Amino acid sequence: MVETTENPQPSSDRLALLYNLTQTFTSTLDIDEVLNRVMDRVIQNTRAERGFVLVVDENEQFKFQVARGMDQSTLSNPEYLVSKSIAESVARSGDPIITIDAQKDPRFMSRESVQVLGLRSILCVPIVLKGTNLGVIYVDNHIKTGVFTHDDLELLNTIASSAAIAIENARLYQLAVEKGRLESELRMARQVQESLMSSESPELPGWEFVTRWLPARQVAGDFYDSYKFPGGKLGLVIADVADKGMPAALFMALTRTIVRASLDSASQPKEGIVRANRLVCADSTGSMFVTLFYALIDSTRSQITYVNAGQNPPLMLHRSSSGQPQISRLGRTGMALGIQKDNSYDQYTLKFFPGDFLVMYTDGVTDLVNSNQEEFGIDRLIQVVNEASSGTAEDMARSIEKALDEFSGGTVFTDDITLVIAKRR
User: Fold this and answer.
1) Rounded to the nearest 5°, which phi and psi values hold at 54?
2) Could you tell me if 187 and 177 are in contact, meaning their C-beta atoms sit under 8 angstroms apart?
């Protein structure tokens, strides 16, 4: 055992010191300020030259949280001032180290850093919380030998226990701050997305329109849009970015802008979608793409012309001469946007008679899963549309929402749900 000198400081002074340090630890959540003040007091009371706090980061690497000198200043380049091998040894074993003279101590005299730095008295203790090593407190004196005592060791162990709690509290506080900031940013992003969605349903004489936008998270990859053109024409878009969270939300905003600009100057729907696809491909990163359905309604000719770029086939409900509803699915006429820049698209035109419905939806509707792991599916959607075919567009939307709620039984939606419903009066 390495001998140490006796500590002349009365125990009452140590108790007063510990009391003051405890107050320091609880005075603020600024961990750097707390540890700087604590280390200044430790250096003063142990007669150390320097004091350091090294913490283990998320990559299991040591980083210097605090590096202080005798004059209560912050030391530059602390990585060149201490024996990191000793600090790492204490961190791994969880056992403190104290030595009178590291130059002659068989445990350390062969270590290059000890010899090069001329280290003499060293005291190093682990910072442990619930069995997890958060780092070490390290003090030394490279001039004097026999500076540290076992009382200093006990003092530093006690301080390390308080430091562990303070470091963890500061970490949790920082996580809470970051979480709060992230939630605030997500709320702002949600507000921006909501502003992009039309606050009111599209309007066209002789037609009814209803829209629903139900993000599964705070932000969504789904969107819908509408565009008015001269001559009694109205364009409707429903789209779904193939991703989740903030990346999908950003890509959604980009795609919406591109599609809107592309369709505005296009003479035909398919020309606008070709242009939009080319621009989306140019800006797409990380293999992101978007499925989209575009319908151009011509009220003077009572017809719609559509392009389906990989989107779930919308439902076209038409009443036959006998009054029975007949449903057809408007299948895909090309690939999703953002996959292949030179892709071409077909377009088709259909007559739209009074009482006819166009039900556009994203896959969050048909892919909805209940507690029994059953999908809502296209057949259930067709059944709901059939049953609600005698009502208004709003009645249709409410019927679909009710069916989804009853089917899910309170199960949290895992995908965005968007509906755009059009009915010719």
Assistant:
1) -110, 130
2) no
